[in-house]
TrEMBL record:
Catalytic activity: L-methionyl-[protein] + [thioredoxin]-disulfide + H2O = L-methionyl-(R)-S-oxide-[protein] + [thioredoxin]-dithiol
PROSITE patterns: MSRB
Name by which UniProt lists this protein: peptide-methionine (R)-S-oxide reductase
InterPro entries (alphabetical): Met_Sox_Rdtase_MsrB, Met_Sox_Rdtase_MsrB_dom, Mss4-like_sf
Amino acid sequence: MDPHFDLPPEAWRARLSDGSYQVLRCEGTERPFSSPLNQEHRTGRFVCAGCEQELFTSVMKYDSGTGWPSFSAALPGALDTRVDRKLLVPRTEYHCARCGGHQGHVFEDPGSPTGMRYCNNGLALRFLVDPEA
């Protein structure tokens, strides 16, 4: 994690919406099908809502039918992973490598172009349209 983003909770609360704070800093999960990013199909980049690190491109996005923005791969070095044991079955959780913000979980998915699904909370992302598209 970048030391510039090692902020106290009060600084994160001032920087983020309540929903984004719950997801990014408290490892919350938004309701499925609640993110407008599910319907985002323009050319651009998906960045961390906490620090604007680029995490995914629009080419990596696909419709998994799960209700959360899903990606078949991530940009190299953008994410850190760890095992999440909050449920009965261990899952692989991923966070922004720059600010440590919780993004979502990665699963095997035979319907994905790569066989993997990065299932992301929309509240943890911002979409930046490619100005040249």
